[in-house]
């Protein structure tokens, strides 16, 4: 059976079919009595050529399948979901204040103009926590004698936790720095980048963005806001307070993550008269 791309989809030859086709072609050229045993030179050549054919067909199958967003992955999935007007929610970095104790004037180098850098420049002051996570200074500063609280960012993007009292180890050794400690809670808790599975599920729901059912449309639009991880939209169409304690003729949008201004803009745009 030949390779076919038609209205039924993509159909590709199997390894067995490729081998049989090569054997038939060689027998036509050299005769049916040629030696094609697996350990013979011709037999080995047939299997090598057939494997080349299978490798190419696997790439073709992957490309063909990736046109279905539910089968795509990685950057290809990013391209597919863009057709639905959405994009993958990016991860973010955890930021926490660190108490730096110094016994003299000490200059420390930070990330400065590139606070979201993935590749950390040489010389940036770096410390570590007891779990092995490393943290870098956000803004260059010259510290005076005493204890100064300055902001550090996790090197790795994602939901890096910073338990109070665990960031105490210097990675960059700087004379004059005598102590480190995160004595308070984080300023910004980082989040993981949206996974392929999460993005695929959100893409399916995003189809409701243009829906005539305004609650579905509102929920889908809220889920498409950057850093939003969970959405539930409830409605009370009656006059009295309902079992969810929603006032009459009201909606209640429960949103985890995202900026308040972005959430408010969606509610304003999607609510009915």
Question: What does this protein look like?
Answer:
With 273 residues, the protein is of the alpha+beta class. It is 30% helix and 22% strand. It is built from six helices and twelve strands. It has helices at residues 15-30, 41-66, 74-82, 196-206, 214-223, 260-270, and strands spanning 4-6, 9-11, 95-102, 106-108, 126-129, 134-137, 141-143, 146-154, 167-170, 177-181, 230-236, 250-256. It has a six-stranded antiparallel sheet with strand order 9-5-6-8-3-10, with no helix packed on it. Strands 1-2 form a two-stranded antiparallel sheet. The model has no long low-confidence stretch (mean pLDDT 91).
The 3D shape can be described as flat
Major sheet: arrangement of strands: 9-5-6-8-3-10
Q: Mind describing the biggest β-sheet? A: 6 strands, antiparallel
Class inferred from helices and paired strands = alpha+beta
Portion in helices: 25-40%
What do the pLDDT scores average to? 91
Order of helices and strands: EEHHHEEEEEEEEHHEEH
Q: Which strand-content bin applies to the residues?
A: 15-25%
Distance between the termini: 60 Å
Radius of gyration from the CA trace?
A: 30 Å
Summarize the helices and strands and which ones pair or pack.
Elements: E1 4-6, E2 9-11, H1 15-30, H2 41-66, H3 74-82, E3 95-102, E4 106-108, E5 126-129, E6 134-137, E7 141-143, E8 146-154, E9 167-170, E10 177-181, H4 196-206, H5 214-223, E11 230-236, E12 250-256, H6 260-270
Antiparallel strand pairs: 1-2, 3-8, 3-10, 4-7, 5-6, 5-9, 6-8, 11-12
């Amino acid at each position: 059976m030949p390779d076919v791309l038609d209205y039924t989809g993509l159909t590709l030859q199997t390894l067995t079919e490729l081998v049989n086709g090569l054997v038939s072609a060689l027998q036509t050229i050299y005769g049916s009595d040629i030696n094609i045993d697996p350990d013979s030179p011709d037999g080995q050549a047939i299997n090598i050529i057939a494997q080349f054919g299978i490798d190419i067909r696997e790439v073709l199958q992957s490309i063909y399948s990736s046109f279905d967003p539910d089968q795509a992955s990685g950057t290809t999935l990013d391209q597919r979901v863009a057709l639905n007007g959405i994009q993958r929610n990016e991860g973010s970095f955890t930021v926490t204040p660190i108490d730096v104790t110094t016994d003299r004037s000490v200059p420390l180098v930070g990330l400065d103009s590139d606070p979201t850098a993935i590749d950390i420049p040489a010389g940036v002051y770096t410390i570590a926590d007891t779990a092995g996570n490393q943290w870098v200074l956000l803004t260059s500063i010259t510290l005076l004698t005493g204890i100064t609280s300055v902001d550090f960012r996790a090197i790795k993007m994602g939901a890096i936790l910073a338990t109070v009292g665990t960031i105490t180890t210097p990675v960059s050794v700087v004379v004059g720095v005598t102590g480190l400690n995160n004595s308070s809670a984080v300023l910004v808790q980082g989040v993981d980048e949206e996974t392929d599975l999460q993005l695929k599920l959100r893409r399916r729901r995003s189809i409701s963005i243009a829906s005539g059912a305004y609650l579905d449309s509102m929920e889908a639009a809220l889920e498409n806001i950057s850093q939003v991880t969970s959405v539930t939209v409830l409605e009370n169409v009656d006059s009295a307070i309902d079992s969810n304690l929603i006032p009459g003729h009201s909606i209640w949008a429960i949103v985890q993550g995202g900026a308040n201004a972005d959430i408010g803009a969606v509610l304003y745009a999607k609510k009915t008269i």
